[in-house]
Design a protein that fits this description.
Strand content: under 5%
Number of helices: 22
Number of domains: 1
Order of helices and strands: HHHHHHHHHHHHHHHHHHHHHH
Number of strands: 0
Distance between the termini: 41 Å
Shape: globular
Structural class: mainly alpha
Radius of gyration: 21 Å
């Protein structure tokens, strides 16, 4: 029966049925076929979202919206333009660097794409860049957001895999910098081939001016991480601090955020959270079904019998995660795969923090590829570029991300060096 349930989910997902509806429909089919009382449904739906760390999710989502509306995204873009806009293919480099900076505030690829994306694509097309190229660079660079702390997918992963949020946050720094470097190298090679012009040399006056305008916004991750690792507040409380900081900057310092904006911002976040909560609730039922069918135990027995090593498992996991990312977003993927992967990585001695960054990067790369490609779809919509045309332009930029993925998969210290330096557990 479980096989039928999985087939139903895949078929519905391929038909572009929302993943929450797909999982719920298949789960209900299972309950009916197995004659299980429906009273199990509300119990499992509530259990998966009944978590204190989960409160950080809507808070960081709110931070991204406040930063976008309060003009902080534009200030960050202007500063990035001042420091790297002179390179060959300047605005493409600006796109990546701005995403790196903004990722320390939004924690989400969608927030990054939705906030900076419209600014970046408009600026690039106005300076003569092909719209498809602008969309591709924006989509690829937005994948840095969930890797650099603070990160919404990291919080979700920590809940699902019982991992340390603090260590996961620290573990994302070096991979995020590697992604930035790899994308900028690819942009340089692409720009050299296409003979893109260089910008004017950077002016110290302009760098200083744009830095002053964006400094308080860029201070956000310093405030958050400093507070967390000094013990002043927990990661969940840090999300609330981030909201208050973003409101302070938008309403009082920059004065681009108005009280009238808050109603629309809150409503937008409420709607998005409603979608996420329904999604997680349906995944809770499906997770219970997997447990009832002894799927984790069967897989553990298979791993033991087949004598699969950690490197081999990581390669298999990479393939599964990339495919998963192609058809759905990060949150449901993590919760769907957690009961399957968690006992295996524990048995093989794979560090949950190391595996967490691998999981998130895999899913983000998958989110750039058809048939669904959620992140690419959002950016292509913003740039008014047909989805598959956008994918053709994005394909070369997936290569450097895959190189980084392989590096962090088989060189764990890239992820674990900083967490081991600052945190013992």
């Amino acid at each position: 029966m479980l096989a039928i349930v999985l087939v139903v989910i895949v078929i519905l997902a391929c038909l572009n049925v929302p993943i929450a509806v797909s999982v719920a429909s298949a789960s209900i089919l299972y309950l009916i076929a197995e004659d299980i009382p429906f009273s199990i449904v509300p119990q499992q739906m509530f259990q998966i979202v009944d978590s204190f760390p989960f409160l950080a999710f809507p808070m960081f989502m709110l931070v991204g919206s406040l930063m976008n509306t309060g003009g902080m995204s534009r200030r960050i873009f202007d500063f990035a333009d001042a420091i790297v806009g002179h390179l060959r293919g300047g605005l493409a480099h600006v796109n990546v660097v701005a995403s790196l900076i903004f990722s320390g505030m939004s924690g989400s690829a969608i927030s990054d794409a939705g906030g900076l994306g419209s600014i970046e694509i408009k600026a690039m097309t106005e300076r003569g860049y092909e719209p498809g190229f602008a969309v591709a660079v924006t989509a690829a660079s937005s994948t840095i957001g969930p890797i650099i702390p603070p990160s919404i997918p990291v919080i979700i992963y920590a809940m699902a895999f019982n991992a340390s949020i603090g260590r996961l946050f620290l573990g994302g720094f070096l991979p995020g910098l590697l992604m930035t470097t790899a994308l900028m190298v690819m942009i340089y090679l692409y720009s050299f081939k296409k003979d893109f012009p260089r910008g004017s040399k950077p002016s110290l006056k302009n760098i200083t001016k744009t830095f002053k305008r964006s400094a308080l916004a860029m201070l956000t991750p310093v405030v958050l991480l400093g507070g967390m690792f000094s013990g002043i507040f927990t990661p969940t409380e840090a999300a609330v601090v981030a909201v208050l900081w973003a409101m302070f900057l938008g309403l009082i310092v920059h004065r681009e955020l108005r009280l009238a904006h808050l109603t629309d911002i809150f409503l937008e976040v409420f709607v998005r959270m409603g979608v996420v909560l329904f999604l997680l609730a349906t995944v809770g039922i499906f997770t219970w079904i997997l447990t009832r069918e002894n799927v984790p135990e069967r897989l553990l027995n298979f791993v033991a019998t087949a004598d699969i090593s950690a490197p081999v498992f990581l390669m298999i996991a990479n393939i599964i995660l990339l495919l998963m990312g192609m058809i759905t977003t990060v949150t449901p993927s993590i919760f769907l795969l957690a009961p399957i992967f968690y006992p295996i990585i524990m048995k093989l001695g794979i560090d949950p923090v190391h595996f967490g960054i691998i999981v998130i990067l895999n899913l983000m790369i998958g989110n750039l590829t058809p048939p669904v490609g959620p992140v690419l779809f959002v950016v292509a919509t913003i740039g008014d570029v047909p989805f598959f045309k956008a994918f053709r332009f994005t394909l070369p930029f997936i290569l450097p991300l895959l190189v980084v993925l392989l590096l962090i998969t088989y060189i764990p210290q890239i992820v674990l060096f900083i967490p081991n330096m600052f945190m013992n557990n």
